[in-house]
Design a protein that fits this description.
The protein has 467 residues and is an alpha/beta fold. The chain folds into three domains: 155 residues, FAD/NAD(P)-binding domain (3-Layer(bba) Sandwich); 127 residues, FAD/NAD(P)-binding domain; 106 residues, Enolase-like, domain 1. Helices cover 30% and strands 25% of the residues. It is built from 15 helices and 21 strands. Bound molecules: flavin-adenine dinucleotide and nicotinamide-adenine-dinucleotide. The site of nicotinamide-adenine-dinucleotide (NAD) has 22 residues, from helix 7 and strand 17. It holds the Pfam family Pyr_redox_dim.
Length: 467
């Protein structure tokens, strides 16, 4: 391939993760042509290294935990080898031919290689067969995902990142997990189930700090019950390893690692997983060629022909939110005449620990800071207070909470922590997006006995004048 081998499409999308695929698909369905540039596996981080493998690992563990708390069924046990085989099936053995077939069928032109913007509506793709230019008649979309943020204290240690944890091949006997967010608690769960002795080092005072405080407390106590040590206030000040080596995905990256923390002492392990957040992957996409920076992407000050969506953009770094942005953008590019989106679309998220943490919209603290103390009222109940939730398993521990705007009488946020809490979330999302008054929600009758009865319990706890 040479530089004269130029390709043209209405829309050029750089990054073929779930978000880039969706933009291209919606654009094509709207009558445009689309080229999708992908440097690794078509399907992106989510399909091979993030959502899919992590959830493929966590679901059987959840089922095993549930059966241990359900009299009448023999305990199911996690079988590490078979669990990893399930993961391999769900990541299609790191082979994207199924996705390539889908793209072909969807009339999307796949261009393999690393894409970089080199001028207005011009993208240069360096691929296995050389370099080619792809031009866009209308729009270029950055859907290049995100990359992990690794604190410099781990330089030279070759720590595990989330790709190693989801792609685990060698299970370390002792594993340190640094971070107290979503990846840390989910990975701690499956690594412990696979047989690692896990210790989570959390810099802050709690796990899952972006959630209602009870979520982190309940998950911490559940992790501890599962034999996982959680050390709070443990800021890593040094990390040392002999023979650090990149031995490959999911393999132990060298000799013992010794990690020293500011206030909680020193810990030695066979591997350390760093899960300290991610940032948009914008370092090598050619923003500089346009005189732009990652800050311009964050603030949305891009030329009209350039967009950034998914993890690469300013929105919440979650697959479903990125795909939502992609659907909206893809349809808009194709000129679809759609009703305008609501002003503040709430972000739902499920943390697939046992118990699960499902949340959407604002926490109480966020609502108080946005609306003022007098304008916020909450209702909080135990997860097992409904027949439907307590039947799920005999230790249906957890809590449920709604945050209500007292003046408008509508739900602003909801959090459910408990077994299968994920399935309760969408009702809350609909209530928030639809701005359904809580006085009307009373008339949405949940079937008996289902987990949704928790809504009755929460609504009953609200002040009488609101219901
Ligand atoms: C361990 C883990 C578990 C997660 N679990 C969940 C979950 O359960 N639910 C959830 O909603 N979210 C989850 N997430 C977040 C989710 O993975 C991301 O929000 C999602 O992948 C974002 O999709 P995307 O298409 O924007 O980016 P990605 O999936 O990262 O895809 C970006 C693609 O762009 C390609 N690319 C990048 N730069 C270039 C370039 N210059 N040229 C060509 N190609 C390029 C990459 O190779 C990649 O294929 C998880 C994340 C992690 C790390
Ligand atoms: N189930 C899901 O939806 C799911 C699962 C996994 C990942 N994700 C996505 O992936 C993103 C990244 O996950 P994550 O867990 O890495 O990020 P996160 O933002 O959830 O958590 C980062 C954690 O690292 C800590 N931290 C940050 N800098 C640190 C430092 N220098 N030293 C020590 N600790 C530090 C933070 O205090 C926090 O506890 C999430 O924002 C989420 O959107 C989603």
């Amino acid at each position: 391939m040479t530089d004269t081998d130029e390709l043209n499409a209405d829309v050029v999308v750089i990054g073929g993760g779930p978000v880039g695929e969706n933009v291209a698909q919606y654009a094509v369905e709207g009558g445009l042509s689309a080229a999708l540039v992908e440097g690794e596996l078509l399907g992106g981080e989510c399909s091979y290294y993030a959502c899919m493998p992590s959830k493929a690992l966590l679901r059987p563990i959840d089922v095993a935990h549930t059966t241990a708390h359900l009299p009448g069924v023999e305990d199911a046990a996690v079988q590490p080898k078979e669990l990893l085989a399930r993961r391999d099936t769900w990541v299609s053995h790191y082979d994207d031919s199924g996705q390539v077939e889908w793209a072909d069928g969807a009339d999307i032109t796949l261009v393999r290689g690393h894409g970089r913007i080199v001028g207005e509506r011009r993208v240069e793709v360096s691929g296995p067969d050389g370099t080619r230019t792809v031009t866009a008649d209308r729009t270029v979309v950055l859907a290049t995902g995100s990359v992990p943020v690794v604190p410099p204290v781990f330089d030279g240690v070759s720590p595990w990142g989330s790709r190693d944890a989801t792609g685990v091949v060698e299970v370390p006997e002792r594993l340190l997990v640094v971070g107290g967010g979503v990846i840390a608690v989910e990975a701690a769960t499956w690594m412990a189930a696979l047989g690692s002795q896990v210790r989570v080092l959390v810099r802050g005072p709690a796990l899952l700090e972006k959630n209602e405080p009870f979520a982190g407390d309940i998950v911490r106590s559940a992790l501890e019950k599962a034999g996982i040590a959680v050390v709070l206030g443990a800021d890593v000040t040094s990390a040392v390893r002999k023979h650090a080596d990149d031995t490959g995905l999911g393999r132990i990256h060298g000799g013992e690692v010794t990690v020293t923390t500011s206030a909680s002492g020193t810990f030695t392990a066979d591997e350390v997983l760093v899960a300290t957040g991610r940032r948009p992957n914008l370092a090598d996409v050619g923003l500089d060629a346009l005189g732009l920076s990652a800050g311009d992407v964050r603030s949305g000050t891009l030329p009209e022909w350039l967009h950034a969506v998914g993890d690469a953009g300013p929105g919440a770094p979650l697959t479903h939110m990125g795909k939502y942005e992609a659907r909206v953008l893809g349809s808009k590019l194709a000129g679809a005449d759609e009703a305008p989106a609501p002003a503040n679309v709430p972000v739902p998220q499920v943390v697939f620990t046992d118990p699960q943490v499902a949340s959407v919209g604002q926490t109480e603290a966020e609502a108080r800071s946005a609306l003022g103390d007098d304008a916020v009222v909450t209702s909080e109940v135990g997860f097992g207070t409904a027949a439907g939730t307590s039947l799920l398993r005999d230790d249906a521990d957890g809590r449920a909470k709604i945050v209500v705007d007292r003046r408008r009488g509508v739900v602003m946020g909801a959090t459910f922590v408990g077994p299968d809490a994920a399935e309760l979330l969408h009702a809350a999302t609909i209530a928030i997006v639809g701005e359904v008054p809580v006085s009307v929600l009373r008339h949405a009758v949940p079937s008996y006995p289902t987990a949704s009865e928790l809504w009755l319990r929460m609504l009953e706890q609200l002040p009488r004048d609101l219901r």
